[in-house]
Amino acid sequence: MGCFINWRGKQKTVDSYQLKEVKQFATFVKKEFLHVLRDRRTLFILIGMPIAQILIFGFALTNEIKNTRIAIIDHAKDNASRHLIGRIAASNYFRIQEDIMDEDRLETAFQTSDIKLALVFPANFEDNLSRQHHAQVQVIADASDPNSATTLTNYISAIIRDYQVELSGQMPLPYQITPQIRMLYNPQLRGAPNFVPGVIALVLMLVSVMMTAISIVKEKETGTMEVLLVSPFKPVWVILSKTVPYLLLSLVNVLSIVLMSVFVLQVPVEGNWLLLFAESALFIITCLTLGIFISIKTKTQQVAMLVSLMGMLLPTVMFSGFMFPIENMPVLLQWISNIVPAKWFYSIVKSIMIKGVGIEGVWKETAILCGITLILFVVSLKSFKIRLE
């Protein structure tokens, strides 16, 4: 009887202890929930980032290419050419650039990336169809991006085949329209000419931004930044002095990548080498300024590294045009891509290296990069002064 009572007493004590532990555990869980709910940055990472990523990847990750700018040079101006042009205009794949109506402007339009494809009708297009039952059209594609060029030529060839089938069904004799395809800048459709400019943009963006942000935040964590700021030097020179080594090292990275592309990957630099390095230096300065801005807004090296990696890697890959065509995306995402520096630098490098254009072909992208750099520098300087106060 005594054992039974002792056993029941022990059981009651154990049950009370377990209940107390459960209450304590629930209290800790509640505390963590409140901590997460109060931290807006944590909420953004947990809830906002997955939503943003699924929307961005859902719109960008597609093999289709839509709304591609195309020029049509119609020397025939007959019913057959107009019907075929109407079919092209009705598709969702192409947008006809009405201001490019002669062959003299085609090369400039391709160099400045105003168009990705051109369709040229001969003067006797309808006569050849009616008399010889055979006609040719010339298809010119920008093959600096070989995957897009192949896809676009397949699209235009399919539209031509559909029109040919329609004509053959109406007439007793079969009709044949043969597209003569010409690939500009990359006739062999090699992947390296598109790969190298994207790698340069990606490497410079990640290295310059991340290393600059981490190095400055490290000085703040160790307390040496305060010592530097009370020195006779101005705070601006203290911050800029942290970026000079990464500027020089990044230029070395550019030189090594370009030399490897020329001598190993057999991708020659068609344009001016000096212009290429000047534009690379401008982009590096843009990235360094962005790294300074991140270092001012963060307090620890871990946060600076996370922001640099997550905040720069995804926009560079998604919105630069390196991996996915920007014209596929909704208008809102296309607008967002305009504030990504890698988009403009990728276009500059591809134009200089692959297309061989000069400053007249990349002046707009250069001006935009200068504007982004100036804005980041002014905002960073203003934020830095506020932190000193």
Could you walk me through the main structural features you see in this protein, from its secondary elements to its overall organization?
The chain has 389 residues and is α/β, with parallel strands linked by helices. It has three domains: 2-60; 68-184, abc type-2 transporter like fold (3-Layer(aba) Sandwich), CATH 3.40.1710.10; 192-388, no CATH class. The protein has helices at 2-38, 40-60, 79-90, 106-111, 125-132, 146-170, 192-222, 224-229, 235-263, 273-297, 301-319, 331-337, 341-355, 359-388; strands spanning 68-74, 94-96, 117-121, 134-142, 176-184. The chain has a five-stranded mixed sheet. The longest helix is centred in the N-terminal third of the chain and has 37 residues, at 2-38. The chain starts with a helix and ends with a helix.
The number of helical elements comes to 14
Neighbour order of strands in the largest sheet = 2-1-3-4-5
Poorly predicted parts: 1-5
- Supply Rg: 30 Å
How much of the polypeptide forms β-strand, as a percent range? 5-15%
Question: Percent range for helical residues?
Answer: 55-70%
Indicate the overall shape: globular
Mean pLDDT rating: 79
Q: Total domains, how many?
A: 3
Number of strands: 5
Distance between the termini: 77 Å
The H-and-E topology, N to C, reads as HHEHEHEHEHEHHHHHHHH
* Class derived from helix and strand content: alpha/beta
Characterize the main sheet: 5 strands, mixed
The gist of it:
The chain is an alpha/beta fold. Helices cover 70% and strands 8% of the residues.
